[in-house]
């Protein structure tokens, strides 16, 4: 890979502009590659996991959940924030069981994605989960969602028609399609 120093921005000073219970917004002054100084506002995020749960019959486990900032119900894969000090794989197992009640015997890391690079350092680690066994969901207080299953063809159609617009679910669906077709293999 080439040297990227000619593209890098260097922090001059800055600090926290807002310290919320979940998100911290930073405002820094940075020196641009041409020497000019400007400001950057961004959100620090602890990271999250996304689970791509595939049942033995090939159907895919999904959730419907209301998301307040957009004031609508979204179709999503099970996902959640990585707790401080928590291993991402442990977080994936926890989130799958908490949100859906399912546990899995076969796990594979798929990829890391950065979903909002212009204003956040958030990353999401995607995991494929198979060998699913149904159990009792353990939703967090104040968390309301419903689980359902769909085929991969249905997911692809919902992405194509705009019924699924959540970026982590779109990317996860494309990964499942590539894996199902044998175009891509997991390491």
From TrEMBL:
Task: Recall the GO molecular function terms of this protein's record.
Answer: hydrolase activity
Superkingdom of origin organism: Bacteria
Q: Which SUPFAM superfamilies match?
A: Nudix
Q: Which cofactor does it need?
A: Mg(2+)
- Keywords attached to this entry: Hydrolase
User: Which Pfam families does this UniProt record tie to the protein?
Assistant: NUDIX
Domain (Nudix hydrolase): residue spans on this chain: 43-172
- GO annotations of cellular component type: cytosol
Q: Which InterPro entries match?
A: NUDIX_hydrolase-like_dom_sf (IPR015797), NUDIX_hydrolase_dom (IPR000086)
Q: Please list the GO biological process terms of this entry.
A: nucleoside phosphate metabolic process; ribose phosphate metabolic process
**Reaction equations catalysed:** GDP-alpha-D-mannose + H2O = alpha-D-mannose 1-phosphate + GMP + 2 H(+)
PROSITE patterns named among the record's database cross-references: NUDIX
Q: Which family does it belong to?
A: Belongs to the Nudix hydrolase family. NudK subfamily.
Name this polypeptide is given = GDP-mannose pyrophosphatase
Q: Please tell me the species this chain comes from.
A: Pseudoduganella umbonata
């Amino acid at each position: 890979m080439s040297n990227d120093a000619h593209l890098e921005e260097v922090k001059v000073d800055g600090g926290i502009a807002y310290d919320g219970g979940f998100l911290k917004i930073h405002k820094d002054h940075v020196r641009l590659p041409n020497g000019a100084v400007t400001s950057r506002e961004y959100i620090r995020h602890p990271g999250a996991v996304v689970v791509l749960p595939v049942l033995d019959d090939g159907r895919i486990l999904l959730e419907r959940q209301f998301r307040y900032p957009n004031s609508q119900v979204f179709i999503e894969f099970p996902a959640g924030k990585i707790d401080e000090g928590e291993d991402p794989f442990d977080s994936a197992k926890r989130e799958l069981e908490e949100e859906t009640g399912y546990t899995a015997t076969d796990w594979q890391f798929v990829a890391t994605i950065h979903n909002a690079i212009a204003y956040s350092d958030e990353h999401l680690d995607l995991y494929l989960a198979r060998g699913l066994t149904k159990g009792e969901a353990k939703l967090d207080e104040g968390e309301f969602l419903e689980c359902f299953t769909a085929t991969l063809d249905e997911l692809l159609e919902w992405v194509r028609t705009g019924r699924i617009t959540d970026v982590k679910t779109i990317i996860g669906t494309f990964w499942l399609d590539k894996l199902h077709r044998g175009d891509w293999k997991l390491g």
